[in-house]
Amino acid sequence: MVFGGDFGNALGLVQLDTNVTGTDGDAAEYDSGGATAHPDDAPAGEASTETSDGAETITFDRSGIRAGFLTCLPIALGVGGYGIAFGMLARRAGLSVAESALMSATVLAGAAQIIAVELWTDPIPVAAIVVATLAINLRYSLMGAALGPWLGRLSPLRSYGSLLVMADENWALTMREFQSGSGRGAFLLGTGIAMWVFWVTSTIIGAAAGGAIGDPASYGIDFVLAAVFVALAVELWEGRSTLVPWLVALATAVVAAALVPGQWYILLGGFAAAAVEVVRHDG
């Protein structure tokens, strides 16, 4: 989920070394409230796993959830601004407050949701929305794989349950946490809960405000979508090389908007830019 965080840096972290570093001694140590704990001293209900070769212990308990939640609070607060923008856009597209909140609660993917409501017309272009959201969210397969060395040592319920609330920002926080050797397997879940609470709450606020305002265009608020993506573009800027795919996407979208009915110009512009990048890096 892109909420305006540094997505470029987040993807760059995929290439970082994700090997779990072994620890000295029979059991790994992890930091929990400033105290050093061992698997044998774990409180009841705490789940931990340790490989036979003495690799780092991965725990899954409430202290890890709490640490993740508190660490992510400042970022989640910033995410709230984008949630308000999404709520207003959703109301402009015709969704009710309840429908907007339901989408945020079940999808939890900011950029994909914004694209979806921008494509939202009557009749709903299901194929276009599915293809667009799939293309935008494919990066999560790489990001989830990067967490594999740690989450893979937890039960499927805990690992996949944590991945359900993974976004760009809390993924980057979790990678840093895991690579520090803390062994807190529940950290991702804690950060995800913080993101989810702020995203859904801010969506409700934005949707309610959007309904009270009426026509956003009369206040210039209809520009919010463009403003959101300008902010995202600033975060993604990596220098002059970034201009090439951006200009290709712009030119393709402008031509497609004039020739192709509906909102397909958004997808075509994105695919054209992606194709150019593949040719540039593989050629």
Strand content: under 5%
Helix/sheet category: mainly alpha
| Strands, total number | 4
- Listing every helix as H and every strand as E from the N terminus to the C terminus, the arrangement reads HEEEEHHHHHHHHHHHH
Radius of gyration: 21 Å
Question: How is the main sheet built?
Answer: 2 strands, antiparallel
Outline type: globular
Query: Which parts are unreliable, with pLDDT below 50 for 5 consecutive residues or more?
Result: 4-46, 48-52
Distance between the termini: 30 Å
Protein name: AzlC family protein
Transmembrane segments: 67-89, 101-120, 126-151, 185-213, 219-237, 244-266
Subcellular location: Cell membrane
Keywords: Cell membrane, Membrane, Transmembrane, Transmembrane helix, Transport
Note down, in words, how this protein is organized.
It is a multi-pass membrane protein. Pfam families: AzlC. This protein has 283 residues and is mostly helical. The chain folds into two domains: 56-234, no CATH class; 237-283, no CATH class. The chain contains 13 helices and four strands. Strands 1-2 form a two-stranded antiparallel ribbon. The longest helix has 31 residues, at 62-92. It starts with 6 loop residues before the first helix and ends with a helix.
